[in-house]
Design goal:
alpha+beta, 5-stranded mixed sheet, binds 2-(butylsulfanyl)adenosine, 20% strand
Length: 715
Amino acid sequence: MTRDDKTSEDRAGKDRATEAPATVPADDATRSRHSKLSIEILDANKAYYAASSPLMDDAAYDARFQELQALEARHPELLTDDSPTQRVGAAPAAGFAKVRHARPMLSLGNAFSEEDVAEFLKRIRRFLNLDEAEELAICAEPKIDGLSASLRYERGRLVQGATRGDGLEGEDVTRNLRTLDDIPDVLPGDVPDVFEVRGEVYMSKPAFQALNEAQMAADKPAYANPRNAASGSLRQLDPGITARRKLNFFAYSWGEVSALPASTQSGVLQALDRWGFTVNPLTRNCTSLAEIMAFYRDVETRRATLDHDIDGVVYKVDRLDWQDRLGFVSRSPRFAIAHKFPAEQASTILRGIDIQVGRTGALTPVARLEPVTVGGVVVSNATLHNEDEIARKDVRIGDTVTLQRAGDVIPQIVGVIIEKRPEGTEPFVFPTVCPVCGSHAVRDTRASGELDVVRRCSGGLVCAAQATERLKHFVSRNAFDIEGLGAKQIEAFFAAGEITTPAEIFTLPRRNDDLKLETRDGFGKTSVEKLFKAIDERRTIALDRFLFALGIRHVGQTTARTLAATYRTLPALLDALNAAVKDPEGEAHQDLINIDGIGPTVVTELMEFMAEEHNRTVLDDLLGELREVEPFEAPAQDSPVAGKTVVFTGTLETMTRDEAKARAESLGARVSGSVSKKTDILVAGPGAGSKAKKAAELGILTLTEQAWLDLVNGA
Ligand code: IVH
């Protein structure tokens, strides 16, 4: 069971009707007990939702929750809107205002081996077209295991501090961040007008130990690890609590800036150091793979002696002009990578294998384990990937298995310790029918003739598991993100037949005369009002979120964004898809396949989705409930190539093809692989052949590489 199965709404409201309010107001001891319980529950919620690591088991959580409810039932004056009993969904840090980051806060790609690092360096050299002799300086530093924060300084004064959140939007924790010694309120001297400093908030090992000792002495639950403790401590509604918890901050990056104090990563770090920030003293520039690996090993050997947790090292291209040219892929910079330390391992007993049915019908085996601590976190579930993996490792129920956990990824079973296998175990037989709806579960044959590794339930929307998973996906954070409507609520509404399609989420408020949610267990009047408000707010939605929310196979966030960026509006995309469905040999179909980053598999899935009558009904009903699917906003509207479809052909001389494409996209252009009527500009280098000919026939503007550069550089 997960905490998702037991959110606070389940408990809110219980007992309230049967407890008569007291006539005497709460005394000091009661008030202080009330606030202590509230803080503990909020902490536990945050740890659970934000760090997937519970601070207390469900029984301890329930006991506190019920005590809090009972107190509020006896003393209604203690019941405020921000009490944890009133929270719908217990989203992390619901009490903080949202902050839209001026520049997204990115994540990093990972390297796990020397080969991965070598490939990273090669990729950069290839992208920038550097010759062997050219030095590539890499700024290397430890990767701190904490949580990232962004500090906005305007005219040298700290005006806002925010957590990373989903990278685009975080929480305003300014007051809490101000309490950290490593974070100056005012920067000295002549600093740029706007400067967002980014870095990692963390708790040192000694501070973590002291905090846990104090927690235990006060009969409060201990934190699982320093990162959870830092996260819980920073995201306190009362900054006084943050101030008492000793947190630190390493500065390592920046967001929006009006000017930069240096032209290299290491130079900016030196400036940050002068301005009063703490920069990691182990930071070093390396110029070869050998030097980088020596740095990695050196940091790894120091790891145990450092006073804080690190989980790897980070490498960044030192020259900032090169960082700019390299740009980003999806949500990670091309110019940086995290080189992780090996995953921590442990062994335990496999008690069972459950089969979960996902949104697209995939049957996923999940290992149920005897709980074991791996890298400071208690693990009781792990993924077994698919039936071939189980067979390959011959994993049997009752076996002692080795599992590993790297960072935030789901723990995985590495293998079986055969010597410990008890007698009488049987090889695991993977089901060939869906455990939820009983439909056949089959493995498709891929185009290559190979059998797909994934076995899928063929029940489609007949399968309750697929239908609920789709709805859960629809409301999830990167999709419609409806606060107060989480996995648990979707399951309950679905089971009751009250929400079976996305449109029915939006008709919920209209149906409430019949449903009377406020009278139900787990829903107070306030939480119902909040839920309806959250639903109403999402009647306007960005096109890429909308597309992602539909849960079409292979249409993840990046693909949804590419489609949105290409077609800009929903009607334009739907027209193209309908035309492609009508004429699979036609131009609309070809245009779709030509989009860079969209392969034939995605196009087939999109067309199958559109061809299905049921999906069209679901889509129409949903659109009938929405106010607006907002057209995609190009990142740089003022650039002369924003919104234009560009094709590169022939040999480019000043930049690689990858770089040309990335640059064009960052200026809001769409890059396509082939010329059609939709092409606006063809950039043709020497050796351009059939594409140049076709462009000439179609009367499409054809530019030399230099003319293109003049255009985008504003010459
Ligand atoms: S640089 C554009 N440097 O790791 C660069 N990140 O896995 C963005 N982190 O979200 C990040 N130590 O929270 C950078 N020295 C370091 C870091 C570091 C820890 C965290 C950070 C980021 C995550 C990415």
